[in-house]
Amino acid sequence: MVVAHNEYPDTLGGLPDDHPQGTARSPHAFSAREGDRIRYEAHPFTTSDDYVVTLYRRRAEPGTSRKERPVLFLHGANSNRFCFGVNPDASFTGYLNRLGYDVWLLEFRGARSSHFHGSGPKPQNLDAKIRIDLPEAIQQVLHKTQTNRLDLIGHSLGGIFIYAYLGANPHAPVGRAVTICSPAHVRRFLGALSRPLKLPARMLAPLAPYIPGLGVHHLAKMRGPLPHLAAMARHIQPETMNAQERRNYLNHAVEDMTGGDLSQLMRWFGEGGLSTNDGGSYYDVFSAIQHPILVLGSDGDNIAQPDAVREAYNRLGTPNKKLLFVGKRFGSSRNYSHQDLLLAPSSNLDIYPLAQRWLERD
After folding, report:
1. Could you tell me the pTM of the whole model?
2. Which of 9, 186, 188, 239 is the most exposed place for a label (fewest CB within 10 A)?
3. What is the 3-state secondary structure (H, E, C) of 220-275?
């Protein structure tokens, strides 16, 4: 049984009446009309290896007391900035904006918002995102906001990037971090098919960089029930989001996967670890992490299974860490899967306050 101690009992079942969100406001009262997509300022920059990637910004709402540190969000695989919310009223970023946070989101190399203008092969793999995109994006945000530190929130693979970055940079200009559904391994990513497919994955991984993409974003936009069924099979519990909310996610938040990323993920799946392309392991730096980290997992997640999230937590060297799981048996209003805990209207009550409380502890 997965057990998690929760030091924020008042936030799991709802919010105080004087909270900016207000418990009297039904989580299903938010608009989900197509076209209500949240708007961001775009801040593209060129990395040291000639990739143009984009930071997106949403400033604190006027009239709020601005928080000292900006927050940088990091998406996972096959995702972009909209994985943290499509509708302004029901989004993680909008929630923090209403509390005075200056919010930034990084779309890594390989996203449709990025392009390579160097010469030779594109430097496209997970290592480049961790070692180049993330630290250089952090410097961009600090420069543009004239601050000395920021906070990090990463979902899925984005949380693994946080572990790898903070472990390699113990003096990184980061105040606090939150990881959401970020496992220590992906060895059971394909469920019952994982064991028989490990060897083929290892053998085919060297060929994956030659694949231009998988076309996942095109499949997500297909009309009809198939994209919805695929999303509900792995990413979304049927009762957390209605059909229009799922369609907004499928239309806006899904990205393709490049061959370089796919190759490294296939190797992680086949080997059962988190190896680098130069023969190392990101596990080696997990124990060096000293920053405060909140690790959030979902009781109903079959991509980042609770035991894999717990293993990541156990590997962290920082004494200032906390592990929490969400789901009905932990006091949440409903069960969540891998993606819907970021997107469901009820996340305003069940999920976002947990991160907020952690960020505001100092």
Report:
1. 0.89
2. 9
3. HCCCCCHHHHHHHHHCCCCCCCCHHHHHHHHHHCECCCCHHHHHHHHHHHHHCCCE
